[in-house]
Amino acid sequence: MPGVSFVEATKKFDDVVALDRLTLDVDDGEFLVLVGPSGCGKSTALRLIAGLEEITSGTLTIGGDDVTEVEPQDRDLAMVFQSYALYPHKSVRQNIEFPLKSRKVPADERSARADQAAALLGLSELMDRRPAQLSGGQRQRVALARAIVREPQVFLMDEPLSNLDAKTRVQTRAELSDLHATLGATIIYVTHDQVEAMTMGTRIAVLNDGRLQQVGTPDEVYDRPANLFVAGFIGSPPMNTVHAAVERDDGSVTARVGRSSVPLDGALAASVAAASVDHVVLGVRPEHLTIGQGPMVATVRNVESLGHERHVVCELAGGPHDPDSSPVAAPLLIVRQSADDASPSVGSTVELVPRLDQLHLFHPDTGERISP
Amino acid sequence: MPRSILIRLLALVATSALVASACGGDDGPDESGDPAGTAEVGDVPEADPESDLAAGCPVDVLDDADAPVPITMWHSMTVELNDALVALVNRYNSEQDQVDVELQFQGGYTESLDKYLTALRGGTRPTIVQLEETALQIGIDSESFVPMQACVDASGYSFDDHIDRTVAAYTVDGRLHAMPFNTSNPILYANMNMLRAAGVEELPTTVAEVREAAQAVVDSGLAPAGVTFTTSGWILEQWYGLAGEPFVDGDNGRGERATEVLLDTDLGHEIFEWLGTMVSDGLATNVGNGENAEHLIALATGQAAMTLHTSAALRSVKIAAVDFPDVEVAVGPMPSFGDIEGGTLVGGAALWIDGDTSDEERAASWDFIAWLNEPEQQAEWHAATGYIPIRRSAIVLPEVADLWAAEPEFRVAYDQLVAGEENIGSAGPVIGNHAQVRLDAIVPAFERMWIQGQAPDEALAEAKADADQIIADYTDRLG
Amino acid sequence: MALMLLLPSLVVFGLFVYYPFGRTIWLGLFRTSPFGNRTTYVGFEQYADVLASSDFHHSLWVTLVFTVMTVPVGLALGLGLAVLAHQRLSGVGIYRTIFSSTVATSVAVASLMFIALLSPSVGLINQIIKGFDGDPIYFLQRPGWALIAVAAVTVWQNLGVTFIVISAGLQSVPDDLYESARLDGASAWMRFVDITLPLVSPTLLFGFVVLTITSFQTFGQIDLLTGGGPLDATNLIVFSIYTEAFRNFNPGVAAAQAVVLFLIVLALTVVQLKLVERRVFYG
Ligand SMILES: Nc1ncnc2c1ncn2[C@@H]1O[C@H](COP(=O)(O)OP(=O)(O)OP(=O)(O)O)[C@@H](O)[C@H]1O
Ligand SMILES: [Mg+2]
After folding, report:
1. Interface touch C184/A77, C-beta < 8 Å
2. What is the ipTM of this complex?
């Protein structure tokens, strides 16, 4: 019912195209995370839904109705601003009650519902304080309480956790997920933090430069990134990508990078053939590389220990690389090791073993995924 | 109305806010209105080289000075008036090598007087200061000036060629205190086209004729009123001057210090009665204090046919009138109550020599002031500014003669200054705080009469009480 | 040491503020000759005379009426225009420039403009009145109108500064508060009352106090437009002190009046701050 749909929605600020022909369905009750780098149009998308900006072309429907002419206050949605936007001169109670007061809810009902929302978020003790007298996490929760008190059908949240410290962030993340489960409302959540994206959303929509790159469950997006951008953006450390030449020999197909040669299995070989390219971008996640006896030869450049795991930065040996497409051309690979594994010494030459069933191939020119 | 006209009217407003400047004129450059026959005055002082005063202004020391004596003059001349003064001073400085005059603009007359009085209590004082005519008693009471009579006596100066009244105006108790310089008086401005349309062929010369003309204008429906009045104490005093009657006691304040205004006289009642009924009968409108030139603008825009205003504004009025082709500006002498037994008073400003000065500075000041009074300079000054030339022989000089031939209106003010009789009435009143008497006693009386409909007799009585109180308070504080 | 650091500012204040002020109080104790050269000690009698003087009362009363006429109207107009100009509308920059332009207009120019606007014979307003067959109104020449006219000039003259100050106050209110309020369902009026007013209240209080003080100090418009008349209708207190000192040559009385005025303005300001402070939200 109150799903939100963009169809070919474009938003321009003068010459800046903030959103470029966005087509996206958000289902009723879904927790959709909008993710992407700074300036990619996330907030713009949210503000379009809220009615704070007017769409330039295309359509936007909420619950199946075109909302172009509908004022923000009539869209039955609540927004949690990145800055919280708490009313600094009002007490916590007055802040939480404000949406009800605006809608002429009687005073006693107002205060009962505010108490309820406050209790849910653990704010009951703070009702008489002003926002300035609250910690960041508390303010965050006041903003949430103010959003939920009216029980809207759709929540819009714009990087609501970005100002919190790591601990409060984890805690509030859990609270939000619980809230979603309890309220069953549609939540559209903006972040540029891919960990938040992976952990919170039922689906993720990745935006770059105003364009939708991919939508899917966190696993789909992680396991089958639709293009090099998504591959590089989702995952930390990001997927290793190297430019490779396709070599065919006796029916076996390999991807060669300098002195390294990675065999491609049947499905991969078929996709290369289907794309009819003689170069590909080969992608492999750091956790799918091990140091041992394998087809890739590299020199250890750096070892970063994170305590529980280790990132080994390797440079492929003798790798011809294409200076025109920079991320692809980087001959550096990161290997993710368990802290228990033996650490290679910097400067030593090692062989790397990729998991052949976890290879990703991308078109060398368009960056689109070609592997299945 | 077109913007350009508005701008010119605003310029008129701006110039009429400048206190005084004037011109005069009638036929040819003759000596009509010769005051030689008006005997009894004696108010024009003679030089007496033997007097005690003469020592205060040793004019001869100038010849012994080694270098030009530097003197400063504070003045209030703006725009073209300033230009004309600067030109005179530059010429003076270059034509002789005994005196070097430096001009210092000090704002309007009121501001300049304030500054001077403040400087008396500690501060840099000028050598010469230009003060308006109402400051005469203040100037005397300040006891800070060298009486001009000292220099007159010391130099054996003769006023034979001066218009008597300009000298008499600054003479108190037989002594000249300041030297007349820029001089003006009020004249009648009229829209002759409207008067003619109403059947009035000649400019009125008496107030009775003004009333008849106003009646004719109103009756013929040409304008809502015949005359515009400003709430001006100056005009009231001028009528006393024309009638030759003193406005204050003590021989118009010139024999003894004034203690009361002589409003409660037949003339006073006649004036108030006439002014009051003109308005209450719908023949005249009160347009305020005149500082915004509203009385002139009303004339220009056909709201009335006549008004009284300083001769100083004649040039501005003529310039502004170009934009109003329906209006034919005519000017005439100030209309009188009955026969003229005195004359219009001297308005404008005079030059004073500061007392905190060396002998050389006094001598230098006198040299400069006397030079400014010479016919050549007066002619140049009149042509450049419109102020009345105060020397009789100035009017035959080409600058004046040419101007008067081309624009005879410019001699009206001169002619009425040399016409009439010289007596204590036409010398004009000398009052302690003259400006306050005008603004706090006379003007409110007119306003009560014109705006609130107070009976003329009551307005007069209150005005007299207020004025007398003001004079008494001033005299009392003087100690 | 602290004294050493304070010394320069003490000297400056002492020289330019406290000394003249002290002298004014002192002068107020003396009956002075017109030139201030001869003085007679009369003590607080002179202050008592001033407080008892009906002219002084009248001037205070006129000033009070004038303040009541100019300050609330000026603030309300400034706030209204600032709120209008704060909208995200096309061409709003032009309005901002127009609204703030009176800042660049001197009292003299403003007065001259209003003289032209209000003139009975040629003023625009009277042209319109005449267009409807009405009789011209002598705005500056009649006691009933003059104070209103001068108040209008003053409001207009102050509008630029008021507008700029309040606009700055509005700028400091984050946009997202308004956006949030819209989503919370607040009407335009509620947003104004519940968000704008409380958040610009410190600015409004500042404007209120400053405008009140300025209106008590009004001089230029009076000097140029009415000279305190007609019939003292516009004889505001500072103008009357000025005439007392410089036209009536009565510096002693003027000094006593000035001191009384200072105390009144001081008291008024304190009362304003105390009364209103509680209603003001300082971020
Ligand atoms: N009001 C505006 N006027 C002009 N350009 C704008 C406006 N709002 C956004 N933009 C531009 O539109 C683009 C998208 O902005 P948006 O705020 O949606 O980015 P974002 O994805 O939310 O970035 P961030 O993560 O930094 O918040 C940016 O290039 C931005 O500069
Ligand atoms: Mg954003």
Report:
1. no
2. 0.83
Contact check, Cβ <8 Å, B120/C35: yes
- Retrieve residue A345's tokens: 């010494």
Nearest one of C155, C156, C122 to C139, comparing CA atoms? C122
Parallel, antiparallel, or unpaired for β B69-75 and B99-105?
A: parallel
Tell me whether the CATH fold assigned to B21-184+346-396 matches the one assigned to B186-343+434-458: yes
Cα nearest neighbour of A151 on chain C: C184
Give the E-state strand segments of A69-199 in sequence order: 77-80, 154-158, 186-191
B353: left (phi over 0), alpha (psi -120 to 50) or beta: beta
Residue C177 CA, ligand 1 centroid: distance in Å:
18
For C137, the closest chain B residue by CA position comes to B287
Please give, rounded to a whole number of angstroms, the shortest distance from the CA of C81 to a CA of chain B.
28
What confidence score (pLDDT) does residue A259 get?
81
Query: What pTM was computed for the model?
Result: 0.77
Report the atom number in ligand 1 closest to the C-alpha of A190: 22
Rounded Cα distance between A92 and A165, Å, is 22
What residues does each domain of chain C span? Answer: 57-279
* pLDDT, position B18: 37
Please indicate whether residue A331 or residue C230 has the higher confidence score (pLDDT).
C230
Which three-class secondary structure state does DSSP give residue B407? coil
- What does pLDDT average to over chain A? 88
Q: State residue B17's pLDDT score.
A: 39
What are the pLDDT digits (tens) for B262-301?
999 999 999 999 999 999 999 999 988 887 788 888 899 8
pLDDT value at residue B37: 31
Residue in chain A closest to C183 (alpha carbons) equals: A73
| Domain B21-184+346-396 -> CATH class | alpha beta
**For chain A, what is the total number of helices (H) and then of strands (E)?**
10, 20
Q: Which of A66-70, A166-170, B146-150 has the highest mean pLDDT?
A: B146-150
C199 to chain A: which residues are within 8 Å by CB?
88-89
What is the whole-number distance in angstroms between the Cα of residue C78 and the centre of ligand 2?
34
* Topology given in CATH for the domain delimited by C57-279: MetI-like fold (1.10.3720)
Q: How far is residue A363's CA from residue A171's CA, in Å, rounded to a whole number?
A: 41
Residue C161 token pair: 């500064």
* Of residues B233, B122, B474, the one with CA closest to residue C249: B474
pLDDT of residue A168 exceeding 70:
yes
**Tens digit of pLDDT for each residue in C19-31?**
888 888 888 888 8
| Residue C48 tokens, joined | 């008592």
> Beta partners for B415?
none
Tell me what pLDDT residue A318 has.
66
Question: Contact at 8 Å (CB) between B56 and B150?
Answer: yes
Residue listed under structure tokens 């004729």: B209
Q: Which of A170-179, A192-201, C148-157, C225-234 has the highest mean pLDDT?
A: C148-157
**Which of B366-370, C108-112, C250-254 ranks highest by mean pLDDT?**
B366-370
d(CA B451, CA B285) in angstroms, rounded, equals 10
B474 contacts C32? CB cut-off 8 A? no
Residues with CB under 5 A from ligand 2 (ion): A 43
When computed from its CA atoms, the radius of gyration of chain B, rounded to whole angstroms, is 22
Residue A65 has pLDDT above 70, yes or no: yes
User: Quick check: C230 and B294 CB within 8 A?
Assistant: no
The Å distance, Cα C182 to ligand 2 centre, comes to 19
Tell me if the domain spanning B186-343+434-458 has CATH number 3.40.47.10: no
The residues that bridge with A247 in the sheet, in sequence order, are A254
Distance from Cα A82 to the centre of ligand 2, integer Å: 8
User: What are the residue ranges in chain B where pLDDT is below 70?
Assistant: 1-43
* Domain extent listing, chain B: 21-184+346-396, 186-343+434-458
How is residue C249 written in tokens?
């040559």
User: What residues of C are in the A interface, CB distance below 8 Å?
Assistant: 174, 176-177, 179-187, 190, 194-195, 198-199, 281, 283
